[in-house]
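Possible race condition, two jobs.
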Amino acid sequence: MMADTVFTAGAGVTPLSFSVNPCYPVRVCLNSGVARGVSEGGTEYAYRKGPLYALHFIRFEGLPSSDYDGGYDYVTGLQGAGTQSLVNWFVNVSQAGSGTFTYTDPFGKARTVSLADDKLEFSLTDKGSYDGAITLKEILS
């Protein structure tokens, strides 16, 4: 049996436990952090431009509105007490990608990640739920 997908952050932050797990397979893209090129003289070169990292592309289908934006007040930008939503996580908890948090996948593997995108794009379906994807960035070295 698979566990729930959960986002957790520091003390005082209500975890975000999703009611549905991501659709599988989840895509993972490894980025070496190495820049490669060819000089004007035709010499190939490579240098480390950044750390090795993985991008986890996580797609949800049928995400309930309670998980997507339940308890979030768009006017005040506040999440209701004792609740948590993906919208609040995106806007306030992760500061739209600048903050790290722990992503525990449905198989129990915990990863320190940040949101890789500066936008959250989901579609409201005719069943009143949301379909969309998020990209998580995990620094590996």
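Job #2 (started ~2 s after job #1):
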Amino acid sequence: MAITWNSVPDYDTWGSDSSWNCSQWTEWHKTLKAHFGSQRAKFIWESAYAEGTLGASHTDCRTFNTAFRDYAKKEGLDTYASASFLAPVLNAIGGAKDFATGVTNLFSGKSGKVILYGAVGVVGLVVLYKTYRYATK
């Protein structure tokens, strides 16, 4: 099913059902923005997104999906309106996940491995030097 500006969000409900994923929420905002402009699209999208319940599947989008979080931040979308007092906690969890992913990506490439091995080598040399200094006293 193609997402258009007049699509109705498919919310997660109790039990086994279908619901929109993060990319469908993003696509819907883009079509709303193209049809209505930024401000009205923001209002419509935020109102609809807030209708989802706290444990709904789109909670994953605002908490753990980095691409969705980046898009929402870039567009100035409030994804925590339905989270009430948990908003700061969910945002912190998502931020920590983004940070951990960034660190992992840093060390997964060739240059990251060079940095990691270099750091281990420097620490090893410092330990050897301190051990030598301690042993010669």
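The mean pLDDT is 77.
Logs attached separately.
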